[in-house]
Design brief:
The termini are far apart. Strands 2, 3, 4, 5 and 10 form a five-stranded mixed β-sheet that branches. A five-stranded antiparallel β-sheet has the order 12-11-21-20-19, with helices on both faces. It has 595 residues and is an alpha+beta fold. Strand 20 and strand 21 form a beta hairpin. The longest helix is centred in the first third of the chain and has 30 residues. The chain is 36% helix and 19% strand.
């Protein structure tokens, strides 16, 4: 029997100390994790503690800025020209979401508001994603937009709808160039105005009185410090500073007369100015074409902008832009001749079909002349060759001197200085600087009838007519009604009484027997005035008429100007002035309410 060896018995597995080893490993790993967490907590608490507390506080406590309600604007009789209506605006809380979370919310907002995502995102980035201040991204929300935003409220964390006021112009484009409009502050404007308390999203005046009287109309910002929950809902108000509304402003405008002036202009490109010659109060200032300032109170659409661009410079206030004043300027030529001592009030000069100087023929407008004329007769029939002789005799420097005394070639002092042209009063120094040429006698001849390089605004022409109307004072035109300060708005330019008499008689005869026949009517008191037709080659001519009434005791000056209309001042501009004067004197029959 064979013996078969068997395998030796296997060594039993070692168990002593194994369970302790696992404990040691787990303890080591736990120690490492706890050490890491502890060091991180220590870092967050000790080193980053202040910053983290600030972030937590900013998530819990937010600042709600409250813009002031802008002051209202009234006409001289207390009629509202500009006010504010309640509206809804959309705000974002930058700190409410992480930067990476905002794109989804912005896409949803873009769809509801129909505004490009980039436009909303730009406003958000300007304020900064860690800012506790709200950022306005839309104004003037429609009811449909408000409903859509409220329905999506749970999905739009950090988005808030709030009530604000929006600028409102109840009469549409009435007096648009005087009133101007408001809009959100631009980056360049913010850069220059930030030290005056303006901030991103602020609304300020852009043109007209809205811009000129910004400091009075604006008011002072207020706000609230509020505590919010995790959903961004306000729990309680921690502190509040009420906004201070802006001051109301009363203008010198008569809104009824303003409306009439704009109706009279219609679609004619030009301007009408009505002013009190005794104190410079502007009663009406119309310019065409115009625009509706309401469209700028909220986001302007591409379609609205294209419609504006289709017009010919609708933002240009033509009452404050300069043009050749044509024969209205003969008022100054008369003064220069009489005050120089070279001519007397009784002077009579022959007139001709043309006056030849330096081989150039300067024609009279009727191509025939009028025979011998006095100053009054020359004004009545607007004889060019009569005034050519005055201009040639006194020279360009004297004409320029008296032009400046009448307020030409400089800003008038009206509140709309940023939009006003000073005009041009040419002389030898001006011509050498601008054209590198000397002054010729022909320049003086052209200037004597308000042509050549001479340029004046309709407002300056109204100032010129106010001088004979009030007896020799230069008035400063203004738009804000002076109820408290009672400033002195006039200064004498020291004309001889005989000069004023010649002017007043000549201007009166223009209407009674001369080129201003359109003003010969029983519907208004007697009028004194002057026509003007200015060449603007190769375009059609401009037309003018300026006048005042009643002729013996004037209380209103009206100047009408049509740009490149063709025709003559007596046939186009004079009837406009008559319509304004009829509206003014008929309106006086009904006492106006006190502002």
């Amino acid at each position: 029997m064979l013996f078969t060896p068997t395998a030796p018995p296997s060594t039993p597995p070692r168990t002593i100390g194994r369970s302790l080893q696992s404990v040691f490993v787990m303890a080591a790993v736990s120690a490492l994790m706890l050490g890491g967490l502890g060091s991180r907590l220590a870092y967050l608490q000790l080193i980053e503690g202040d910053r983290n507390r600030q972030l937590a506080e900013e998530n819990r406590v937010r600042l709600v800025s409250k813009p002031p309600e802008r002051g209202q604007i009234f006409d001289r009789n207390g009629k509202l020209l500009v006010g504010s209506n309640p509206s809804y605006s959309l705000f974002l809380w930058p700190i409410a979401l992480e930067e990476a979370e905002w794109p989804i919310a912005l896409q949803r907002l873009s769809h509801i508001l129909r505004v490009p995502v980039t436009e909303i995102q730009t406003n958000l980035e300007k304020e900064g994603y860690n800012s506790p201040y709200r950022v306005r991204v839309a104004r003037g929300l429609t009811i449909q937009q408000v409903v859509a935003l409220e329905e999506a409220r749970t999905e739009l964390k950090g988005v808030e709808i709030d009530a604000e006021t929006m600028r409102y112009y109840p009469n549409g484009d009435l007096a648009a160039h005087v009133l101007g409009y408001t809009g959100e502050i631009t980056d360049s404007e913010l850069e220059s105005l930030e030290d005056r308390g303006y901030r991103m999203g602020d609304v300020l005046g852009k043109l007209g009185v809205e811009a000129a009287l910004e400091d009075q109309l604006r008011g002072e910002w207020g706000g609230q410090q509020v505590e919010v929950d995790a959903m961004g809902e306000v729990i309680r108000i921690l502190g509040e500073k009420p906004p201070i509304p802006g001051d109301d402003v009363i203008l010198t405008l008569n809104s009824d007369l303003q409306k009439k002036a704009e109706q009279v202009l219609g679609n004619t490109k030009g301007a009408i100015v009505a002013m009190d010659p005794r104190n410079g109060e502007v009663l009406a200032m119309a310019s065409r074409p115009a625009y509706d300032p309401n469209i700028f109170s909220s986001r302007i659409s591409d379609e609205q902008w294209q419609q504006l661009q289709a017009k010919e410079h609708p933002f240009l206030n033509r009452a404050l832009r300069s043009f050749a004043p044509a024969s209205t300027y003969k008022i100054i030529t008369t003064v220069a001749g009489l005050e120089s001592g070279k001519f007397s009030p009784g002077t009579v000069l022959p007139t001709f079909p043309y006056l030849e100087v330096g081989g150039i023929q300067f024609w009279d407008w009727n191509r025939a002349g009028f025979g011998p004329l006095s100053f009054q007769g020359a004004m009545t029939w607007s004889s060019d060759t009569f005034f050519y002789q005055i201009g040639r005799s006194v020279g360009g420097e004297v004409l320029a001197e008296w032009s400046r005394k009448f307020g030409m070639g400089q800003l008038t002092g009206i509140e709309l200085a940023e939009e006003e042209s000073p005009g041009v009063v040419p002389d030898n120094a001006w011509k050498e600087e601008m054209l590198d040429e000397i002054w010729y006698i022909g320049d003086s001849i052209n200037m004597s009838i308000g042509q050549g390089y001479m340029q004046a605004t309709p407002l300056q022409v109204a100032m010129m007519f106010a001088v004979p109307a009030n007896g020799g004072d230069l008035v400063q035109p203004h738009l804000q009604l002076d109820l408290q300060n009672r400033r002195e708005w006039t200064k004498s330019i020291n004309l001889k009484p005989s000069t004023i008499q010649v002017l007043r008689e000549g201007l009166r005869d223009v209407v009674q027997v001369g080129t201003g026949a359109a003003l010969r009517t029983n519907s208004i008191p007697p009028v004194a005035g002057k026509t003007g037709t200015a060449e603007d080659q190769p375009r059609k001519s401009h037309t003018w008429f300026g006048g005042y009434a009643p002729a013996d005791n004037p209380e209103i000056v009206v100047v009408a100007f049509t740009e490149n209309s063709g025709g003559g001042g007596g046939s186009l501009a004079a009837p406009m002035v008559r319509s304004i004067l009829e509206a003014y004197f008929q309106g006086q029959k009904t006492p106006a309410p006190k502002p």
